[in-house]
Amino acid sequence: MGREELELARTAPREAGVSLSAFVTELDHVGNCGWYTARVAPKRASKIRLPRTLAWLFPEVDLSRIDPRRDVDLVLTRVLERGRMADVEWCMRQYGLEGIRAFFRRAPRAEISARTIQFWRVVLDEQEQVWPSAPSFRQASASLWPG
Prior knowledge:
By secondary structure, this protein is mainly α.
């Protein structure tokens, strides 16, 4: 193996955005056809990040630590209840109407007001569906003290 081939072998996985083991696995899959003709594994899908415009909704959290796929309940709860139209549009592009529908069907949402829930029932054409509801002591209230 010449100097250029060794350098290519060392840098190709990094340039392809994959680990060395994934690169070698891809080479094994293609066969021993040499570094120049081997197909390099495509870059893995980049991690989806929240737009900086949503930072005001998460003041207590480092925005870079929120994973929209993992923390879908947190993101949708904050955005659907308090977000601006552009924030809601981002959620609709990210999760789709089916994802938002599944969010409301999955568990009670005590942090979301009855008004917001009713709005999404109309938008999603779910007026007849039964969605889980939070116990009365967990539901959001406009009054500071009951009575």
